[in-house]
Design brief:
With 818 residues, this protein is mainly beta. The strands form 9 sheets. A 9-stranded mixed beta sheet has the order 48-47-50-45-44-26-1-46-49, with helices on one face. The chain has an 8-stranded parallel beta sheet with strand order 2-14-17-18-19-20-21-22. Strands 6, 7, 8, 9, 10, 11, 12 and 13 form an 8-stranded antiparallel beta sheet that branches.
């Protein structure tokens, strides 16, 4: 039985005002064609255009940026897997097709300077053009849709608007202007249609130029243009801030694709749009104004992430200088003026013109996304100094721990993409952090390896967040990443909410954010937990690493010859006396170079299979002068990220860099056991040992029962260590004047009885929100709430009572104070 002793009189800290928020980036076509419900894809006809600083390679299959970064392009369709999975017939104008009509892009006669092309169409009588939308143009019976297009024609012509099936005429238009003019129509759908198309048909034929075109549902969230079901799901998390607009898309992959606020405001047909890091062009229909409006609508603090003159550092960065850098700085200043300047300022006036004369909020600016290094420090300081002089109330978020260099940052944004077990093991990550500042913002957090999008992944995150809540005097903000995914355009996995044109559902983690975000309390109170521990699941046998030329013999596993199953770097050759690991060959080196960060010049051979097995491994190794002996224990690969851009990012193969979890290193009389998995504190144990170089083979062995490790040299026990573990039950308790709120996360596969002791009287009746299921359980369109929280009523609470939580579960108890 576990024990939880709660002392409400001992208040540990006030809960952070803005702990749970959301981070919204346009990835997986999350925004364009998603939360921003445009139904026509490629509405400005520019999807096939490349940014000015990129060139096409491999016949348009890919492009290469001026920095040398390559990405799939497919003529503007994006990832190859999207084309393959949705059976797209590629055209030169993505999403657009014609029948008895000729279409071409015209760059000489466009709607405005921002539009690089228009669509010139020559219709035969009865000819039509078609748009296939974002995998279909959906129609819901009874819903009203608004259509508009900027078009012109030398001669008057009639057009029919058909949406859904070929015969569903929704409206008729008469084009009579020789200059671009906006033509509008609205209609109410008579039928449901899931995989329909949009057609523009000319009964009599004619020549038409279209400068921009759009079809959207009339009814949107609070009338502000966002898709209702998705916006409501976000509102139900009760987020207190919105980090936007990215993410990597803020950085861009070239100077021209770096995000600028100015490009995302004003009438949508005047917004230039740009190719995003995540493989498609955005038309920025949800721009700076719309993000701020959404914040206002659901009571979130906007946290604007700006580019600080650096393109994506993970994708061959470029540092902007001189005028280019000044322009980026001016762009942020203008963005802030747009948000909070009075209507008599240049940008405040545009906000007023866009329908919002009163200022929005703007209290947080993050300078850069995932930027680091000297170049970042310089730029951070320039941005910080200039912005804070003009807007002293703003709190600044840095991407790295600049305070260590004496640079002022109010908040530092840390990102954690890990496994469920890592999160469960690291609930105390922030316990020892300085309380003197800066505050910590967990801007991007999620389980991306292992139990991705499954119940156990959500439990790992929930366990971690009990630790975050216990330390919310230092971790003051957090958001899951990424947030949204159109299932037909997945570029990353997992994502908190998944949707298609008709429906949306939350993955199990969504319900954790909802449960935690809806049950905050006012103070974190003292709570002591006694519970059993679960050893980190480990698998795999041994490996040898280090420099080429390592000599060994007699490798045994449980007394039998242990075979080398992987020669990752280097080869094992047999001599009369021993076995030796040679230099890696060219193919291995090439493989290693392809995996970023792989250490060249090292060898790695693996014994046995990636299975979880108790047993004993033994080997004789010849120590040579200057050589460090490195034995990998439970050698297995770090599970690949469930990142699905598989053509350009294949799942990681065996690699010197991704061996985990333990390395046993012996050199010059010292022995050290290292946990590759641990953040910050990788050394599990250090010990002294006696080894004579060049003289004789020494006998190294380890024994394990999967909970503990015993390591021997020449029969002498050198290390005896527990395999790292995590608590079965993870808890945090908060209270208000009226309630005690107890969060309980059971990572264990058994139900837990918890003896709860309180220092105050509570009502016997209490409620519990419970989420539980099988380890691998997930939600789907068919079963959208297979894993979710359910509310239950109990009675029997008191100063001392027992509550039972299900196996593999998250529970929030709400006890009423008496
Ligand atoms: O959330 C997906 C990406 O992960 C973000 O764009 C980036 O900041 C991080 O690397």
């Amino acid at each position: 039985m576990s024990k939880l002793t709660i002392c409400t009189k001992n208040k540990k800290m006030k809960v952070a005002d803005n702990l749970y928020g959301i981070f919204l980036e346009d990835i997986n076509r999350a925004v364009d064609g998603g939360l921003y419900p445009e139904l026509l894809r490629n509405r400005s006809f520019e999807d096939s255009l490349l940014p000015v600083d990129c060139t096409l390679v491999d016949d348009g299959y890919a492009f290469e940026s001026c920095t040398g970064w390559r990405d799939e392009f497919n003529g503007g369709e994006g990832l190859t897997k999207w084309v393959r999975e949705s059976n797209i017939v590629k055209t030169s104008i993505p999403a657009w097709y014609s029948h008895k009509a000729e279409m071409k892009l015209d760059d000489s006669d466009t709607l405005n300077v921002q539009r690089k092309v228009s669509l010139a169409v020559g219709f035969d009588a009865g000819g039509r053009i078609e748009n296939i939308g974002f995998c279909g143009v959906p129609q819901k019976v009874g819903e009203t849709y608004n259509f508009y297009m900027f078009a012109k024609s030398e001669k008057p012509m009639k057009l029919q608007l058909i949406v859904g099936n070929e015969n569903d005429i929704c409206a008729e238009l008469e084009i009579h202007s020789v200059e671009y003019q906006c033509y509008r129509a609205s209609y109410t759908a008579k039928k449901n249609c899931k995989d329909g198309k949009f057609y523009l048909l000319s009964p009599e034929g004619g020549e038409l130029h279209i400068g921009f075109i759009s079809l959207m549902p009339a009814e949107t969230f609070r009338g502000h243009g966002l898709r209702r079901d998705i916006a409501e799901m976000l509102e139900n998390i009760h987020p207190s801030f919105l980090r936007f607009p990215g993410g990597c898309i803020v950085e861009g992959f070239t100077p021209s694709t770096a995000m600028r606020f100015k490009d995302t405001v004003g009438p949508v047909w005047e917004r230039p749009g740009h190719l995003l890091m995540w493989h498609y062009r955005s038309f920025d229909g949800m721009g700076f104004h719309e993000y701020l409006q959404f914040c206002e609508d659901i009571g979130m603090e906007p946290l604007y992430v700006c580019n600080c003159g650096i393109t994506c550092q993970a994708r061959k960065e470029m540092f902007m200088t001189g005028q280019a850098l000044d322009e980026m700085l001016q762009d942020v200043l203008d963005a802030i003026e747009y948000a909070i300047g009075t209507p008599d300022t240049k940008w405040g006036a545009l906000r007023a013109k866009m329908g919002h004369p009163a200022p929005f909020k703007m209290n947080y600016i993050e300078i850069g996304n995932e930027n680091w290094g000297l170049e970042y420090e310089e730029r951070y300081q320039i941005f910080h100094k200039t912005i804070s002089q003009k807007y002293p109330h703003i709190k600044f978020v840095a991407n790295s721990h600049l305070e260590k260099k004496g640079i002022s940052a109010d908040i530092v944004d840390e990102h954690y993409y890990e496994t469920a077990e890592w999160f469960a093991e690291n609930t105390d990550l922030f316990h020892d952090r300085s309380r003197k500042g800066p505050e910590i913002f967990l801007g991007e957090v999620s389980v991306v390896r292992g139990y991705v999008g499954q119940l156990y992944g959500a439990l790992g995150e929930a366990a971690f967040f009990t630790g975050v809540e216990r330390n919310q005097d230092v971790v003051t903000m957090a958001s899951y990443a990424p947030l949204l995914e159109n299932v037909h355009y997945q570029a990353w996995s997992p994502n908190l909410i998944r949707f298609d044109n008709f429906a949306s559902f939350g993955i199990p983690s969504y319900y954790i954010w909802k449960m935690f975000g809806s049950n905050r309390g006012d103070f974190v109170v003292d709570a002591q937990t006694e519970t059993r521990r679960i050893a980190r699941p480990v698998k795999g046998m041994a490996s040898l690493l280090g420099k080429p030329g390592l000599k060994f013999k007699n490798p045994l596993w449980n007394g039998s010859m242990a075979t080398v199953t992987q020669e990752v770097m280097g080869h094992v050759i047999l001599t009369e006396q021993n076995m030796e690991i040679t230099e890696p060959d060219e193919e291995q080196l090439e493989e290693s170079r392809r995996h970023n960060g792989a250490k060249l010049g090292e060898v790695l051979v693996v014994f046995g299979e990636e299975k979880a097995e108790a047993g004993c491994f033994q080997i004789d190794i010849l120590p040579e002068k200057g050589r460090e002996i490195v034995i990998g224990i439970f050698t297995s690969r770090i599970p690949p990220m469930a990142y699905v851009n598989d053509e350009t990012h294949p799942p990681k193969a065996w690699n010197v860099e991704n061996v985990q979890p333990f390395l046993w290193k012996i050199k010059s009389g010292s022995s050290c056991l290292i946990d590759q998995f641990a953040p910050g504190k990788p050394v599990l144990e250090k010990a002294i040992c006696s080894i004579k170089a060049d003289r004789m083979y020494h006998h190294f062995s380890y024994k394990t029962d999967l909970k503990k490790l015993w390591l021997y040299i020449d029969g002498e026990l050198i290390h005896e260590v527990m395999i790292p573990s995590f608590a079965a039950l993870n808890t945090v308790v908060t209270d208000t004047e009226e309630e005690v709120i107890v969060k309980l996360v059971n990572m264990g596969e058994e139900e837990e009885n918890i003896a709860i002791n309180l220092d105050c009287e509570v009502e016997s009746e209490y409620c519990a929100y419970v989420l539980t299921g099988e380890k691998l359980a997930e939600n789907s369109f068919e079963k959208p709430e297979h894993v979710r929280d359910w509310k239950y009523q109990f009675c029997g609470a008191g100063r001392s009572f027992t509550h039972t939580v299900p196996r593999l579960s998250v529970t929030v108890l709400v006890l009423k104070k008496r």
